[in-house]
Amino acid sequence: MAGGNIEHIQLNNTDPWKDVDGERSSLKTTHPFLGDPAVRQALNLLVDRGSVQEQIYGRTGIATANFLNAPSKFQSKNTRWEFNVDKANQILDAGGWKRGADGIRAKDGKQLKLVYQTSINAPRQKNQQIVKQACAKAGIEVELKSVVASVYFSSDPANPDTYTHFYTDIQMYTTTMTQPDPGLFMNQFTSREVAGKANKWQGRNITRWRSAEYDKLYQAAETELDPVKRAALFIAMNDLVIKHVVVIPVVFRPRVAAISNRLKDAAQSGWDSDFWNLRNWSKA
User: Fold this and answer.
1) Where are the domains of the chain?
2) What class does CATH assign to 6-275?
3) 147-203 residue pLDDT tens
4) pTM (two decimals)
5) SS3 letters for the chain?
């Protein structure tokens, strides 16, 4: 059933390896190399979404270039995904990232070495390996980190390995879209969800990306009553996120359910419980 869940890779806009005022990934820092558009563009070309769909998810994970994929009226037709190691190498060469004797690219004393974390889950570890192998061909060294799911998705503020702390360079998980209206789903890129008390991070903007242009689009969507114009605003938000490689969408994940062929009227929804229409079920 169609829903809006998306397996994606997030790129950290702050420095997870520097401690500022007792906080890692502080808003007062910038990432040492992911702030370079060339690096972000190269990484976007090094995620083999086609192989991830074919070898890992099949029909349960559809390769996509969009973060916002459903309902269909909100899905952008302006984006394309591409897997191209040669082009990634060309972009990094042009950006001044030169290979060292060890094969790892570097610029201004900074090597392209990153830590890529996700939860322990067989498909995700396979996905990590696909990305790591492609990155190695482009002179980017990737260290894989896998965290037990109960720890990774914990709400414990003292746990440094949660996805919300984001104390690595990139990370991957599925973010869920709980309703067909994208308002709540897309607020995870607004700056107001970043700056909190004492300028410390809080809210749903886990990548710590800040864009006045995005905020303006989101605020306009909050008051726009024309459904066509409102859909255009959300498409523009998606395109801005993809253009700046804030995240790298991997596969769009429709909800999966098995239903007996003897059941009648067991209609399923990508936005609700499998049993939302239970009162109308009957046996054939």
Assistant:
1) 6-275
2) alpha beta
3) 999 999 998 888 999 999 999 999 999 999 999 999 999 999 998 765 555 445 556
4) 0.93
5) CCCCCEEEEEECCCCCCCEECCEECCCCCCCCCCCCHHHHHHHHHCCCHHHHHHHHHHHHCEECCCCCCCCHHHCCCCCCCCCCHHHHHHHHHHCCCEECCCCCEEECCEECEEEEEEECCHHHHHHHHHHHHHHHHCCCEEEEEEECHHHHCCCCCCCCCCCCCCCCCEEEEEECCCCCCCHHHHHHHCHHHCECHHHCECCCCCCCCCCHHHHHHHHHHHHCCCHHHHHHHHHHHHHHHHHCCCEEEEEECCCCCCCCCCEECCCCCCCCCCCCCHHHCEEC
